[in-house]
Design brief:
Helices cover 55% and strands 11% of the residues. By secondary structure, the chain is α+β, with helices and mostly antiparallel strands. Helix 5 runs antiparallel to helix 6, helix 9 packs antiparallel against helix 11 and helix 14 runs antiparallel to helix 16.
């Protein structure tokens, strides 16, 4: 059976040494997040994930969710109890404003806990994860009354939350939604329509579910300009906060899907359900984007999380499984074969996953800190710069981490040979669970188009220029460090590739938009590789400094950082050249054939 150990030590290295978390203690909630408290929080979170969530991951996948005859849903054995334990620890409201029952700690800690819980049990983590996203949207766009009504119950875990966007006929094109909202005359609206693919849409874990639903008010403009957002509780909520009768909201069916079986992905029917407008009329996407962007970072973390847990199990198997002899001679001459771990191709596979995981974790934490700055800083320029980076990097995080996370789950499965295909070993579940992350919250091709078509040129390219300047300045500031020189040379070359690709789009995409469309996926991965390379350069610099200072018993771990950084720069980062070549080949061959020729 699979195992999991949360990477607490690696995470603390990133927080304390690489990103110097304490330097942000001028932001609300950060002063309380002392190094001792952060270590305690991560330690307790790791314990919960390892001891409570991970043991029910495989069994939950095997059992799945069941829709009952009355439309209710039963979650797998142990999930309700695990949720209660999770909620009792204050994890759902970790970063929520204390005024509404939260702890007010940095969002960054919540993002880290999301990685731990998603590695331990991805299907489970979606229940509190969606609730946190719904809370964020209500906190930013809800009325004072809505916040008082819903947020405390959601923060304590008594109620949960969801997001309802997609419908059977529209998929990603939300401008086509048909769900309608008719004013009731008392400030509420009657919501009627069907939503599909609604994660955690119905369950037996919480006493109420607070749905955020996109719908079109009668007479509203067509397309995305006519979409509004509504808060629609599954059960009526009394003036005193009591839970009443069903609010004409029902689960029509549970989707039969490839993975995340323990999360109830529902078809939701709204038959005149009473809902209340969140934010302004016809500005629903603006409000929902708060939840969607948080969800996209959450899904990026899922890609990393499945890569991490699959890697941990693949390493354990490779060290234990005897198979063949080392090319340089038997390493275990007293045994019939050597462990898989001695073979260079096995090492190549495992090192590629390891190098990605550690850089991706840094990439997530770097941007989670930016989210905290964007939402908590009192400095306008600082907030804007952080928001710029988040806007640019959110599609990269979502697209790259889930693409590579899935690939890594497959690579880790391959380490098991035939056993990787057998359910009892658990690897095929990681592959199945990881696959959805490339699809939901905006398929990765859509993320790439969002990056190239919208984010890249926004505000005159301010965000990408800031990234160029930051990475370039890091290289220049450290060019005198002989030990870093090989890493910095690789990083500078990949940065050059990224700048060339960006310039090529400027010169060739405006007049011929298909050039942007054909190169978007490669550009997203090119920017992702440079970002991960930058993370490795920062980590290597800190590792070297700590080794020079004496390392305090951490020499083995720090030297491993330097070796892994070198591997990434030598074996992964050179792929930027291939991405650049594909981008600059244009769209002619891609678009030349007629539909009949396919």
């Amino acid at each position: 059976m699979p195992v999991y150990k949360a990477p607490v030590e690696d995470t603390l290295f990133l927080l304390n040494d690489v990103f110097q978390f304490e330097r942000y203690n001028n932001l609300p909630g950060f002063a309380e997040a002392t190094p001792d408290l952060v270590e305690a929080v991560l330690g307790e979170g790791a314990k919960l994930c390892e001891e409570v969530l991970q043991p029910i991951n495989h069994s939950g996948d095997q059992e799945g969710c069941k829709r009952n005859a009355d439309g209710t849903v039963t979650t797998p054995k142990g999930f309700k109890q695990a949720y209660e334990t999770y909620a009792a620890g204050g994890w759902i409201g970790l970063a929520m404003d204390p005024e509404y029952g939260g702890q007010g700690l940095p969002y960054t800690l919540g993002a880290i806990m999301n990685e731990f819980s998603s590695s331990a049990n991805m299907a489970f983590s979606m229940y509190p994860g969606l609730t946190m996203g719904a809370m964020a949207a209500l906190y930013v766009h809800g009325t004072d009354e809505q916040k008082r009504t819903y947020l405390p119950k959601m923060a304590e875990g008594t109620w949960s939350g969801t997001m309802n966007l997609t419908e059977p006929h529209c998929g990603t094109d939300l401008g086509l939604i048909k769900t309608k909202a008719v004013p009731n005359g008392d400030g509420s609206y009657a919501i009627t329509g069907t939503k599909i693919f609604i994660s955690a849409g119905e369950q037996d874990i919480t006493e109420n579910i607070i749905h955020l639903v996109l719908a079109r008010i009668e007479g509203a403009p067509q397309g995305v300009k006519g979409i509004s957002l509504f808060v629609v509780p599954r059960n009526e909520v009394g003036a005193d906060g009591s839970v009443g009768a069903n609010n004409k909201v029902s689960c029509g069916s549970i989707e039969h899907k490839m993975g995340i079986h323990a999360n109830s992905t529902c078809v939701m029917n709204y038959d005149g359900a009473k809902g209340w407008l969140v934010g302004a009329e016809n500005k629903g996407l603006n409000a929902m984007f708060v939840m969607m962007n948080e969800a996209r970072l959450g899904v990026a973390i899922q890609g990393l999380a499945q890569s991490e847990v699959a890697y941990q199990n693949a390493v354990a198997y490779a060290k234990d499984r005897l198979q063949g002899r080392a090319l340089t001679g038997a390493k275990n001459p007293d045994k019939p074969a050597d462990p898989l771990f001695v073979h260079p191709d096995v090492r190549r596979t495992l090192m590629s996953i390891k190098a990605f995981n550690e850089a991706a974790r840094a990439f997530v934490i770097w941007n989670a800190i930016k989210s905290d700055i964007a939402h908590r800083s009192g400095d306008d320029a600082e907030r804007q710069a952080a928001d710029d980076q988040l806007g640019l990097m959110t599609p990269v995080l979502k697209g790259v981490l889930t693409d590579v996370g899935f690939d890594n789950a497959v690579k880790a499965q391959q380490m098991y040979g035939g056993h990787g295909y057998i359910a009892e070993w658990g690897m095929e579940q990681f592959v199945r669970d990881a696959r959805i992350a490339m699809i939901y919250e905006g398929a990765n091709g859509v993320q790439a188009m969002d990056l190239v078509g919208r984010k890249l040129g926004r505000d005159g390219g301010r965000a990408i220029m800031a990234f160029f300047n930051e990475v370039g300045a890091f290289v220049k500031d450290n060019e005198g460090d002989e030990a870093l020189k090989p890493l910095l040379a690789s990083l500078q070359l990949s940065l050059n590739h990224l700048q060339q690709a960006t310039m090529w789009f400027m010169q060739n995409a405006l007049a011929k938009p298909d050039n942007a469309g054909a190169g978007a996926h490669d550009y997203m991965h090119l920017l992702g590789l440079v970002s991960l390379g930058y993370m490795w350069a920062k980590m290597a610099k800190v590792a070297q400094e700590k080794l020079k200072a004496g390392a305090n018993g951490q020499a083995e771990r720090l030297n491993a950082k330097l070796v892994t950084a070198r591997f990434f720069m030598e074996r992964s980062l050179p792929e930027t050249a291939a991405h650049l070549a594909r981008i600059t080949s244009g769209s002619d061959a891609t678009m030349a054939l007629s539909a009949e020729q396919f």
